[in-house]
Structures
1.
Amino acid sequence: MKRLILPVIAAAFLLGASGAATAAPERHHAHAQVKHTAKPAARARANKATRRANRATVHARKSTARANRASAHARKATARANRATAHARRATAHARRTTIRNNRDLARWRGAVRAQHRYRWNTWHRPRGWNYRRWYVGGYMPRTWYARDYWITNYLAFSLLAPPPDYEWIRQGPDAVLVDINTGAVLRVEYDVFY
């Protein structure tokens, strides 16, 4: 009997220990399951917050990039405007210098004089609807008066000065008139060159 009791006690003891061992993991497993189900919700909230923060960061970067591009564009536009202003200033200064130089150069032609010699040349026909008149320096001649038909191309044969660029000698009755062919401005008049 003693021989039977000892193995039964040992078996009971072993069964009790194994039951306790199996019961304990179940409790730990249930606790782990609760923890495991609680973590995903917090993780999901954290992930959403992270995604929102990332989107906000990307949006901020894009806004900064747009602002930088706009700033660079504004700087380029300002530089272009400054270059255009400087170019306009240089062009104005050049035009002023050219005008002064041209006025100085044209001064030797300016004047109204009586011709030293008189020449017989083709018959002059006045423009239709106009009468002969004496022109003066600084006046403006109508375009019909300085048409190509009235140009004196062989001016050296009549002791006339060589005309400056954009000027031509025009015959007006007995007179030779130096006219700007772009504007009609009279620069010089030599009276009684022809008869």
2.
Amino acid sequence: MSNENTDVITPTDIYSEEYQRMVISLPRGPQLRISANVNAKFREWLATQQVCDTHRLCQIQAHYDRRIDELILNDVFTPDLKTVWALTEPYAGKRSADTQIIRARETHKSLKKIVNYIKEKLCKIAFADELRTRRESIRRYRLEQEFRIHRIDHERHLALIALGWRPDSTVVPVVRRRVRRSEQPPFVCDIENSLCVITEEDADTEMEDDCAICASKHKMMDVCSLNCGHQFGMADCLTPWMNILKNSRKHPTCPCCRTQIKKIVSNTITPIDL
């Protein structure tokens, strides 16, 4: 009489109910056991890789080597994982509106994550000494930083005591530190200023366009022109604008076209001939 279990049915496609039940009951990566035989085979592969002398290089090389994938599929994956992998692999990266194909594609991505998890675990086992040394270095560094912070606090406490503070005092003197400030070079802003002689009649007339700063018209006596051709009120408009930019250590620019101001022409009245 045969001892085979006739209740076990192997699904043949992703649309079967057996496949759906198998996907739901798949184990997670941490539940998979890595045997000593798998570790031995991984170390044999590692011995053939001349560049894998660190944990990071081992991660990179194992990620792209198909032999490690085959080792995990054959010796680490359970029969259910192998079956689901074989059924979902044809749909990896396949675009489709079919719901089952989309789920199969996502299931295959999950299985790839499990493969990468096993790879990372094998690399950690192979380079356990390196990782232990690295963790010890990090722990030592953190202890040194904590000791440095405690030493600074202790020095500050001694400085407070030297200033007359006592533990029972509610007033804490301020310990000031000297801060070295680098002197900035002087700000150079070369702007040419010139005069344009106009008559008294022209001085009483208003500018043609509105000032872009105050949106009003100025008399020509109070108007200045820039090298870009735009006109503004001098005292109440352009001067405050330029002062704001100079205080920010920026070369003044035209409020309209943002052209760098290199020349300012102011108007003056024609002198009277005696």
3.
Amino acid sequence: MAINGARLVSIITPTYNSSEYLEELIQSVQNQDYPKIEHIIIDDGSQDNGVTLTILRKYPHLHWWSRANRGQYATMNEGLSAANGEVVCFVSADDLVSPGAVSSVIEYLSTHSGCDGVFGITSRIDSQGKPVPYYIPFQTAPISFYPYFAHISHCSLYIRKESLTKHGLVFDPSLKYVGDYEWMIRLYMARLKIGLLRCELSRVRLHAEQTSQKYSSGSRVEAQEVIKQHQINRLSFIMLNALYRLLFKIWYMTQAIKHGEMTMLIKRQVNKYGHK
């Protein structure tokens, strides 16, 4: 879809009790230098005394609605169905779209017409929005490596809606924690051609209420079920995932030594593994 010569891009955001960060996300989308963005926000039954609704009503350009809770992935499917954009991206309410991200994506897709989508670099920020050093091994590896170490964030992945519709690539609402992981595995298995932009497209916020932090154990169990369901090669997964974790640990230890935090690092490892 082209509007006044520019492709319409839909940013889809499910939100549930994320009012603390929602407004900052809205502004990060609103401040993009690209002229045609549709920001869809679905309030998935937030229980915050109407704070989320108060924020949403402040921004008349938004396409938003609120209804009873149905879960994150059902909400993302709802947003995808409603999206009018030629290109779509799913951005969580506590994350940010980096300056110039959308224009960079459209410029890439305009010159790579054979691509179904493109992903870019994701950086990390803390609860206050300050940059957090965070090493992602193989962050620019092709999507074919995604099943083994999930190096692509959905907020840095822009896909042509037509490609998703053609292959029926919606999220599995039966999953609670790793629906984006399972969805991206199916993007790869459908042989979608996904390009790479070597620039920052989004900023993921690290905080205590993050789903991956609160439900890490449940996420791991669910991820193993997904790996089994899609018949991901077990040996390849073990080897590549182990390499990924090793490289991250080496980086982490290097940072700890560099900043004089070796004592803290040892305490963390003791707390993690216990006394043996």
